[in-house]
């Protein structure tokens, strides 16, 4: 499974799964696949009755959000966001990359019934963006990848908050209390698993058997927490976020490392395939809803404009006090803005949530996310390749100058 730790391989698999889902949905096999995706699998004793698609988006996708939360915690504590001076510029760029796409979407849907779709074009698929960067930007300096990673992590944080606050149905406080208790217990168990606390309690390092027992209890608590979160009305993926944020750093990093290949090889491709199972509407271009055009335009154009302008303004205001070597040029900001328009995973999830009761519009939204992300992939590949070649020429010229001197 180590092959799926590669950002390039995981991005390619994700794209292939989405393309396969969209293609198959529009063949003779499409009706059967759509029926299977909508088929319900229930556990009445737990109060669960979800379609196959929702078991994937509400259940399996929790693993992806858990990994995101562990990475977010690391970046905030010890990584590229562990101080205000490091976080301020990516934060300003990320804010621009949320506000401008949302504004474009709202402008194109002004006065219409689909204003609730504004969160769809605000997301960036961190895995896909880093995959494109890895494929086409091998000569880029480390500061570009660090800036993109920080921006995408903050973008994910905004997406998590949007899901939690804007897509919460009627709140069941008792179930929410159960979920919070589960998160607290999970965090305490992870501290025991980290070894130091348990070592002090036992007077010796925890044995392998004891660690296995603790892990089993943590898995059980995680499942119960997910169930309580689902029952509470808060989107179930938030359970993965909460569990990842409270988990002790060392076992959290180990868990994320172990789960990442499965997330890249199974969870995300399954979600992309399931979400892309959409029959292309047999309507004329003029009959497509404003929601379709809002997402299609706001995702590639809004992200590029928002990240570039906000990053440029930030660099010329608060960025003056930052280390000059860490600042990105305007050309680099345009490149990062192009990468930011690759919405994919989280945008597809937000589309499902925003248009849950309007299937026709949800289908158009899915196609718009795929097309908008596709445009961004092509644009980003061109921009990244151009900047990579420019940096390579600079290095060659620098070596030549050094040899002459």
TrEMBL record:
It comes from the Bacteria. It is found in: Cell inner membrane; Cell membrane. Signal peptide: none annotated. InterPro entries: Na/H_antiporter_dom_sf, NhaA. It catalyses: Na(+)(in) + 2 H(+)(out) = Na(+)(out) + 2 H(+)(in). It is a multi-pass membrane protein. The chain crosses the membrane at residues 55-76, 88-108, 120-140, 147-167, 173-193, 205-226, 232-249, 261-285, 291-313, 333-355, 367-386. Pfam families: Na_H_antiport_1 (PF06965). Keywords: Antiport, Cell membrane, Ion transport, Membrane, Sodium, Sodium transport, Transmembrane, Transmembrane helix, Transport. Na(+)/H(+) antiporter that extrudes sodium in exchange for external protons. Belongs to the NhaA Na(+)/H(+) (TC 2.A.33) antiporter family. This is Na(+)/H(+) antiporter NhaA. The lineage of its organism: Bacteria, Bacillati, Actinomycetota, Actinomycetes, Micrococcales. The gene is nhaA.
């Amino acid at each position: 499974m180590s092959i799926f730790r590669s950002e390039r391989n995981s991005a390619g698999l994700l794209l292939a799964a989405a393309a396969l889902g969209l293609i198959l949905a529009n063949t003779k096999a499409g009706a059967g696949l759509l029926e299977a995706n909508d088929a319900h699998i229930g556990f009445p004793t737990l109060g669960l009755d979800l379609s196959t698609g929702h078991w994937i988006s509400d259940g399996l996708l929790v693993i992806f959000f858990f990994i995101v939360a562990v990475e977010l915690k690391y970046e905030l504590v010890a990584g590229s966001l562990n101080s205000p001076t490091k976080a301020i510029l990516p934060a300003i760029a990320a804010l621009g990359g949320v506000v401008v796409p949302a504004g474009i979407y709202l402008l194109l849907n002004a006065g219409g019934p689909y204003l609730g779709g504004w969160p769809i074009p605000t997301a960036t698929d961190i895995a896909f963006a880093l995959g494109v960067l890895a494929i086409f930007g091998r000569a880029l300096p480390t500061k570009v990848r660090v800036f993109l990673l920080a921006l995408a992590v903050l973008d994910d944080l905004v997406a998590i908050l949007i899901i939690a606050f804007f897509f919460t149905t009627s709140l069941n406080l008792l179930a929410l209390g159960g979920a919070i208790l589960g998160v607290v217990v999970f965090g305490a168990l992870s501290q025991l698993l980290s070894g130091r606390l348990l070592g002090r309690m036992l007077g010796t390092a925890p044995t392998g058997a004891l660690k296995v027992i603790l892990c089993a209890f943590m898995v059980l608590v995680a499942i119960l927490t997910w169930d309580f979160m689902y029952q509470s009305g808060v989107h179930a993926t938030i359970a993965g976020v909460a569990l990842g944020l409270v988990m002790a750093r060392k076992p959290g990093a180990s868990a994320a490392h172990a789960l990442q290949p499965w997330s890249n090889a199974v969870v995300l491709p399954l979600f992309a395939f399931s979400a892309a199972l959409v029959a292309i509407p047999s309507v004329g271009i003029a009959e497509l809803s404003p929601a379709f055009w809002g997402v299609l335009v706001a995702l590639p154009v809004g992200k590029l404009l928002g990240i570039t302008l906000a990053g440029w303004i930030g660099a010329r205001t608060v960025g003056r006090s930052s280390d000059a070597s860490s600042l990105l040029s305007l050309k680099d900001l345009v490149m990062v803005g192009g990468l930011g328009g690759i919405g994919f995973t989280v945008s597809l999830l937000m589309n499902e949530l925003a248009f849950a009761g309007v299937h026709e519009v949800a289908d158009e939204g899915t196609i718009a996310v795929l097309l908008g992300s596709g445009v961004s992939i092509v644009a980003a590949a061109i921009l990244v390749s151009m900047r990579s070649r420019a940096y390579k020429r600079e290095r060659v010229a620098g070596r030549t100058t050094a040899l002459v001197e």
